[in-house]
Design goal:
alpha/beta; Phosphonate transport system ATP-binding protein; 22% strand; binds adenosine-5'-triphosphate; 2 domains; ATP-binding; six-stranded mixed beta sheet; four-stranded antiparallel beta sheet
């Protein structure tokens, strides 16, 4: 479904690769957590997957098709199938929950409709449904700026779901939330993942959450994969290699 083939990224002016030789295949139904120290390349990898960052070397393929060879229209179509949630939610604070969620339809509509903010009854009905799915029905007309962080992230999830995605991508979606709320958000992501048969790929700093919810963990270190396996295989040694040892290119790679 989604493949990264020898992907490398080097940012302009940098002497080092932010990502180096990343080859991974992801399938529908996987719940993947990406672990790694700050600066290990997790966000860069997510940006390569959603086509926002072009690899310096290698390819990202969606259903066998390289993103780099797609037209703008094809890329737009692929992006529609990727729901995205963010650390800082990326919502419009002065708009209501419903209005924010409805922006999830933008990838499907003409620029003109988006500009005038007109939504069909069908779109509103679908938005109502996803707001119910994330248990925010009672707050649909409340301005987002008046919500807690956990509620805002639920709005973010509802907006992503309205795109009817095949992939749910998360760039540290619980980093600004307390542990209980983070667990609640992961539990909701897992529920949506199961109900909608999504491929879910989430960057996260909390190893406990990754081990509890992921079906697969990928750990990065200095832009390279140092672990790719089942959560139960991510042992104390893997934890040490990922977060505490300064060695790069460990012999203990699990690939
Ligand atoms: N736009 C950019 N221009 C130059 N260098 C960048 C840019 N974005 C990231 N980098 C560098 O690339 C490397 C990987 O960064 P990235 O943000 O992907 O890591 P990360 O694992 O997501 O970190 P964090 O957990 O802190 O978000 C870092 O060394 C970072 O400084």
């Amino acid at each position: 479904m989604l493949e990264l083939n020898e992907v490398a990224v080097r940012y302009p002016g940098s002497a080092q690769d932010a990502l180096s030789d990343i080859t991974l295949t992801f399938d529908k139904g996987e719940f993947v957590c990406i672990l790694g120290k700050s600066g290990s390349g997790k966000s860069t990898m997510i940006r390569c997957i959603n086509g926002l960052q072009e690899p310096t070397y290698g390819e990202v393929r969606w259903d066998g098709q390289p993103l780099s060879k797609m037209s703008e229209e094809q890329l737009r179509k692929v992006r529609r199938q990727m729901g995205m949630i963010f650390q800082h939610f990326n919502l419009i604070p002065r708009l209501t929950v419903m209005q924010n969620v409805l922006t999830g339809t933008f990838g499907y509509r003409s620029n003109f409709k988006n500009l005038i903010g007109w939504f069909s009854d069908q779109e509103k009905k679908q938005a109502k449904q996803v707001i119910e799915d994330v248990d925010l029905s009672s707050m649909a007309d409340r301005r987002v700026e008046r919500l807690s962080g956990g509620q805002k992230q639920r709005v973010g999830i509802a907006r992503a779901l309205l795109q009817q995605p095949q992939i749910m991508l998360g760039d540290e979606p619980v980093s600004s939330l307390d542990p209980g709320t983070s667990n609640h958000i992961f539990s909701l992501l897992e529920q949506m993942h199961r109900q909608r048969h999504l491929l879910t790929i989430i960057n996260v700093h909390d190893v406990g959450l990754a081990k509890r919810y992921a079906t697969r963990i990928v750990a990065l270190k200095a832009g390279e994969i140092i672990f790719d396996g089942k959560p139960e295989e991510f042992t104390d040694r893997e934890y040490f290699n990922t977060y505490e040892s300064n060695e790069v290119n460990e012999k203990t790679r699990s690939r």
